[in-house]
Amino acid sequence: MSEQDLEDYIGTKEKVTAILNKQQPLTLEIIRRLNQNLGIPAEILIKPYSLMKTSA
C-alpha cells in the first residue's frame, strides 16, 4: 500500500508522511478508520510508540 493509498484513511499527504515518520501520533479517528476499512487490529494500532523529535 502506498502513501497515496493511505490518504483515504489518514488525510492529507503531509499528515500521512508525518505519521509514517513518527512525527505525529495516530488519532482515535484514524485508528478507527484503519481498523474498519483495512482490518488492522485496533490492539496493534493503539500500542504506545515514541515520536521522533523534530527540529524547529
Describe this structure in words.
The protein has 56 residues and is mainly α. It has one domain (3-45). Helix content is 55%, strand content 0%. It has helices at residues 3-10, 13-20, 28-38, 42-45. Helix 1 (3-10) packs across helix 2 (13-20). 5% of the residues are buried.
Topology:
Blueprint: H1 3-10, H2 13-20, H3 28-38, H4 42-45
Would you identify the regions where 5 or more consecutive residues have pLDDT less than 50? none
Helix-strand topology string: HHHH
Shape from CA axes? globular
How far apart are the first and last residues' alpha carbons, in Å? 30 Å
**Domain tally:** 1
* Overall SS class: mainly alpha
How many β-strand stretches? 0
Number of H/I helices: 4
Largest sheet: none
Radius of gyration, in Å, reads: 11 Å
The helical percent reads 55-70%
**What do the pLDDT scores average to?**
94
